[in-house]
Design a protein that fits this description.
The protein is an alpha+beta fold and about 90 residues long. The protein contains 3 helices and 3 strands. Strand 2 and strand 3 form a beta hairpin. It starts with 5 loop residues before the first helix and ends with a helix.
Length: about 90
């Protein structure tokens, strides 16, 4: 199981960046704590969230969007596969 650290958060942000998404932390009234602008590939997370909540929100978003392996580096594909295995176990 991966740890809820800033390093893990950075890896997830980098993975989304490679997939063409922009991750921003802003304040706002998001019912789920985040907002996805599909047409612009922008993900907005509540900036007042702690690291663990940010990671959980990004993992939830990754389950909703279609991340294609071709556009990711090999290390990012491995990390994505690891994340997918962990979320299936939970």
């Amino acid at each position: 199981m991966f740890k809820y650290t800033t390093n893990t958060l950075k890896k997830i942000e980098d993975l989304l960046k490679e997939a063409g998404y922009i991750v921003r932390y802003e304040r706002g009234n998001f019912m789920a704590g985040y907002c996805i602008l599909e047409s612009k590939k922008v993900v907005v997370i509540n900036r007042y969230y702690e690291t663990e909540s940010r990671i959980n929100s990004l993992l939830e978003i990754m389950g909703k969007i279609n991340l294609e392996g071709e556009e990711l580096s090999e290390s990012s594909r491995d990390f994505l596969h690891e994340i997918q295995l962990q979320t299936v176990k939970v």
